[in-house]
Amino acid sequence: MAAWRHLLAVTLLPGAVAVGVPALLVASRGANVGWGLDAPLSLLPSTLGLGLIALGLALVTWTILLLARVGRGTLAPWDPTSRLVVHGPYRHVRNPMITGVGAVLAGEAALLGSLPLLAWLACFAAVNAVYLPLVEEPGLRRRFGAEYDRYRGAVPRWLPRLRAWDPAAGRALS
């Protein structure tokens, strides 16, 4: 698969959501690093923010690699995977890309002390709460049938399960 297809998908989707819009919000509304707290307390939101951003970026990267290698597609709805991906973070949560981008947005809001970024995170969550069950999940069901139904019944959409789901056994791994 051509690298430009992945670059386009990443730039237009998580890139716009987690970099483009936040940059515009911070440019127009400013930032308040440390949330106005006195030192050393001002380090807490910055540390939390950096940790969330790192975690989110790692999850987004892992997800993109899995979609390319295992799913043979991209994260974009116009260039979807040809195989259902139930590996790595997908064994804990059905939407690790959304979780990763949400973590990046929460981290940016914490790091930059930005209420507009928190509002953007809420909008992102609301749009996905509508889009996923109404558009993405029916499309996955049409493409993957019973395999997706079994996966959807075992792995939660939003909150990760603690034990990884074993697709071969159809149960959680001990």
List the secondary-structure elements in sequence, H or E: HHHHEE
Number of helices, counting only DSSP H or I runs of 4 residues or more? 4
**Structural class category:** mainly alpha
- Largest sheet, spatial ordering of strands: 1-2
User: What is the number of E strands?
Assistant: 2
Mean pLDDT: 91
β-strand percent reads under 5%
**Computed Rg:** 18 Å
Helix content: 55-70%
Give the biggest sheet: 2 strands, antiparallel
What is the approximate shape?
Answer: elongated
Distance between the termini: 35 Å
Uncertain segments of ≥5 residues (pLDDT<50)?
Answer: none
Provide the fold topology.
Layout: H1 3-29, H2 43-69, H3 96-112, H4 115-154, E1 165-166, E2 171-172
Helix pairs in contact: 1-3, 1-4, 2-3, 3-4
